[in-house]
Design brief:
Blueprint lengths: L1 H30 L18 H11 L6 E10 L4 E2 H7 L4 H11 L7 E2 L4 E9 L5 E9 L3 E8 L2 E8 L4 E9 L4 H8 L3 H14 L2 H4 L5 E11 L4 E2 L3 E9 L2 E11 L2 E5 L20 E4 L2 E4 L6 E4 L2 E4 L5 E3 L4 E8 L5 E6 L4 E8 L1 E2 L8 E2 L4 E4 L10 E8 L2 E3 L14 H24 L1
Antiparallel strand pairs: 1-4, 2-3, 4-5, 5-6, 6-7, 8-9, 9-10, 9-11, 11-12, 12-13, 14-17, 15-16, 17-25, 18-24, 19-20, 19-23, 20-21, 21-25, 22-24, 25-26
Helix pairs in contact: 5-6
This protein binds zinc ion.
Zinc ion binds next to loops.
Amino acid sequence: MRLRRTELIIGICCFISGISLIIYDLIDNRKLPDEPEKIVFSPQTRGPSALEIVDMQKKLFADPNTLIPSKTVEAIVKHPESFIRFLKRHNVGLEDIKKIRKALRPYYDKQQLSRGHRFYITQKYKEGQKPSLEKIVFLLPPAKKVVLTVKDGRVEVSKKPIILPKKFEYLKGTIQDSLYIDGLKAGLSRAAINSLTKQFSYIIDLQRSLRQGDAFEVLVERPFDQETGFVDPGSIVYASLNTRTGTEHIYRYAPKENDVEYFDEKGRGIRKALLKTPVQAAPRITSRFGMRKHPIQGYTIMHRGIDFAAPRGTPVVAAGNGYIKKRGYLGSYGNYILIQHNRDYATAYAHLSRFATGQKKGTYVKQGQIIAYVGTTGRSTAPHLHYEIHYKKKQVNPQKVKMPSQRNLLGAQKQNFIAHMRMIRDHVHILKGQK
Ligand SMILES: [Zn+2]
C-alpha cells in the first residue's frame, strides 16, 4: 500500500514535469529561431556572473542535450586589467579571444581596460560544453558603439556612432562634510563630483568658502543605450552652489560642436583668466618682468612683476575672484595687497596710495572689484602699480602666464545660450517638483 502511494506520487510528479517541459519547449521554440532570448541586467542591479548563470541552468535542465538560449551578461571592469584576462574571467574561450583581439585591433587597441568600462557579452550555453560566444557590445566614449558578432566561427566588428537618448536626473544636497562626501550621498558619481569640483574651483575657493549647510543642486544628463541597458555615469549640465559669498550657477553649453564649456547665467565662461591689467585706466607699462637696472639703487636687480604707470588715485581692481590674504604696509612694497585666487594662483599689488573701504584681510573679492588706488608708497619714484602673479607661491611673468582666456558668448551664440539655459531651468523646475 505504502509503496503504491509513493509510486503514484512519483507518477504525478513525472507527469507534471513532463507537461512543464513540453510547455517550456513550446514557448522556447517559438522564441528561438530569430530572436534569442536576452537577459540584460541594468547597472543598478548587479546581475549574476556567466558562471552563476551556467550553474542556474544546470539546476534547471537535467537533459544534457537541451539547448539553452543565449544570455547577455553585463560585465563591468572592476579594476584595471588586460582585455584578455577580462574576457577569460567572463568565460570567453581562448580561441574566441584570439579572434576578437585580431578583429578589434583597428578599432580598439587598448591593452589595459579601465575601471567602470562595461561590456555586454552574449553567449550560448550548452550543458557539458564551453559557452559559445555570440556577441560583445561595448560603448566607446564619447558616443561610439562597437559590436562584435561571431558568425560561422568568424568575428565581425562594427563601430558606429550612436546618439543615446538622455535621461535627466536632478540631485541636491547640503554640505555636512565635504562636497565629495555629500555629493556621493546625493547620488552623484565620482566622475561627476570631480567635474563639479573642478568647475566650481574656477569661481570660488572651495577650501575656504564651503561651510556646513551650504546647498548645492545638480542636473545630470545620463545617456543610456536601450539595447544594452547601459547608463553613462553622466555629465553635469547645470549646477548651483549656495555659499556665504552668494549663489553661483553654471551651465554646460557647446557654442560649436565638440566645444563644451561651462558658462554663468550671463554667458561668460567660468574659467576666468586673471586680468593682465588690473588698473581701471589706460595705463602704460613702465617696467616688465625680468632683469633691470633699479631706478633708485642703481644696480641690476630682478624685477618680479610688471609696473603700470597711472595717475595717483586710479582704481586698482582684483585680477580674479579670491580672498584678500594680506593687506597693509609691507616694507619697500609700501601699501600692499595679496589676493589668493585658488590653491595655485595669487596676485599682489604694491605702492598703493590707499585701500578700498569695506574690505579687510579675509574679504572675498570678485574679479574687477576695486580693491585699492594707485600711489607711490614704499620704494617708488612715481605713482605706479607694481603687479605680481604668484604661481605656487613664486612670482611668475604675468605676460607669460598660460591661463585659459575667458570666453564671452556674444550675438547669436548668446541668444542660443539663453534659450538653452531657459530649457535647463525648466527641466530643473519640473524635476525639482517631483522630488
Ligand atoms: Zn615694480
